[in-house]
């Protein structure tokens, strides 16, 4: 029985889900609505992420039989029917949690998010639109947290930052089997640097001497946001740099893994900088979100997040 649950955990890439609750937290913080609803919507987001992973492997079962025969479905450890049932069941649970935690406003984002996840798995993944659709999924996930607070617009910049990061990871992931053209990681590395700078800049501007209301609290918030953004850029950037020097498939997979488990550091920076959330709360929650990054790296040694 323990083996069965481990196989399901591998099917849904369980450790990678640590990067998911931070999306909702970022959106809620940007909208000034961190609270009990955030917890419920984060749970809904995790369920949908796992559903997407199961649906992904179900859709790719024939391709994985050739390229990744060790995956749960082609290896025979999980049947295609079980994978599809898991995907459908988790999707249902996700929508139910969304309705319970956030009501109609959350469902107005949750339903398109669900459609985008399934569209990616069943259609867009192997097309030129794939990275953009996946980025849309992550951006909507941030807006899901904001919808729970009833204010989506303030979360748009943060949603764009998370979506841009996701775009770089997804583009790299398309070269996991064949290896990458060195120009690809060079381009995604430039994007990572820009995302990190944009994530810390608002907090730095608000803490600048002469800015109305600037004080020790703003400086501390700026320090945390800058530190987390730098941590994100350093860890993910180092993996992308390695691909530039050696674009072999194993290096690409390592960079994709670094992008997945490093996302919480970016989410932490975006949370810490949230102007709509009181400084101490935003800073503490941002640091808490970032803790998922080292935990995810440890778990990834047991169950691959890619």
Our Rg estimate from Cα atoms comes to 19 Å
User: Low-confidence parts lasting 5 or more residues at pLDDT below 50?
Assistant: none
Give the topology string: H per helix, E per strand.
Answer: HHHHHHHHHHHH
- Global outline: globular
Mean pLDDT level: 91
Structural category is: mainly alpha
The main sheet comes to:
none
**What is the count of DSSP helices, taking H or I runs of 4+ residues?**
12
Question: Could you give the distance between the termini?
Answer: 24 Å
The helical percent reads: over 70%
How many E strands? 0
Strand content: under 5%
Protein architecture, described:
This protein is 76% helix and 0% strand. The protein is mostly helical and 306 residues long. Helix 2 packs across helix 3. It is globular, with a radius of gyration of 19 Å. The relative contact order is 0.14.
Q: Tags for this entry?
A:
306 residues, mainly alpha
Question: What's the arrangement of secondary structure elements?
Answer:
Layout: H1 2-11, H2 21-30, H3 36-59, H4 61-67, H5 80-122, H6 130-149, H7 156-173, H8 183-207, H9 216-245, H10 249-272, H11 279-290, H12 292-300
Helix pairs in contact: 2-3, 2-6, 2-7, 2-10, 2-11, 3-5, 3-6, 5-6, 6-7, 7-8, 7-10, 8-9, 8-10, 9-10, 9-11, 10-11, 10-12
